[in-house]
Amino acid sequence: MNEPEEAVSPEVAERLHRMLDSIYSHTPYFQSMPCTVEKLDVGRVRIGFDISRHSCNYRGIASGGVLAAFCDTLMGMASRTLGFQVTTLEINMNYIRSVKGGEHITGVGQVIHHGRKTIVVECECYDASGNIIVKGRSSFYILKKLD
Question: The whole model's pTM is what?
Fold first, then answer.
C-alpha cells in the first residue's frame, strides 16, 4: 500500500491520537498487544508490532491467529479514525510469508469503502526487509459516532 499523497493537519492528527489513545489505553486486550502507532491519518494507520516468542507456534514462527488479531486491531483502528465505534463483521486473511519470533513487522491499514452502515478496510503487513507477510480485508459494522 502506498502512502497517501496528503497527510492530515497536525491538529487533526493530534485529535486522532487522543481519541484512539483514550480507547486503546484503557482496554486490557489492547494493552497486551505490543503495538506502536507510527502514523495516523483519517482512514489510514501504520502500526509496528513486535513478534515475541510467546506469539509463536512450535516451529518458532508467528501464529496465524496472532497475526489475524493484529490485523483486526489495525483495520479496526483505521475505521475508528473516521470517528466511529465499529465491530468486526468478517475478516479475510492471506498469509504470504512466515515471520519468526523477535522480528518486527509493520502493518498499514487503509479504508477502501465508507458506507452508511459499514466500513471496509484492507491491510498489509511487512517485515523489516519490506517483504509482505500477510494481507487482510475486513468489514466493520458502524455502531455509533464517537464523541
Answer: 0.85
